[in-house]
Design brief:
The protein has 117 residues and is of the alpha+beta class. The chain has helices at residues 2-7, 55-64, 73-83, and strands at residues 20-23, 27-33, 90-93, 97-103. The chain has one domain: 2-Layer Sandwich (Heat Shock Protein 90), CATH 3.30.565. The protein is globular and about 40 Å long.
């Protein structure tokens, strides 16, 4: 949830567009306005640290909560899902939004990282 707030696009292009959280029987989807920041692709998230689109929010969140500003959100999601015996998060980068899909059943077939859609 914090990643959705920290990395979302707050520009005039997404003004008034909320972060959307959709609950389904088999999954949770988090839709964050704006595509990945800079030249990052979903595939890059496996090996590179992304630049913070909103560094002030990142530092403030680290100061006020237990969150850390060290690009550990995606690795943490992957680790926690694996420890729970669940599929890896599915990350989808669209022109106007980033989507994270978290399945709640170990039988769901999913690709760990997906780009486009």
């Amino acid at each position: 949830m914090l990643n959705a707030l920290i990395y979302r696009d707050y520009s005039i292009y997404t003004e008034g567009t909320p972060i959307q959280i959709d609950f389904f029987s088999d999954r949770l989807e988090i839709h964050s306005p704006g595509s990945l920041y800079g030249r990052m692709s979903v595939e890059d998230l496996r090996v590179a640290h992304s630049d913070a689109r909103n560094p002030v929010l990142a530092v403030m969140t680290e100061s006020l909560t237990d969150a850390e500003h060290r690009c550990s959100g995606i690795p943490t999601m992957r680790r926690v899902m694996q420890e729970a015996g669940l599929p890896a998060p599915v990350l989808i980068n669209r022109q106007n939004e980033c989507v994270v899909v978290l399945y709640n059943s170990p039988t769901e077939a999913s690709q760990p990282l997906v780009s486009g859609s």
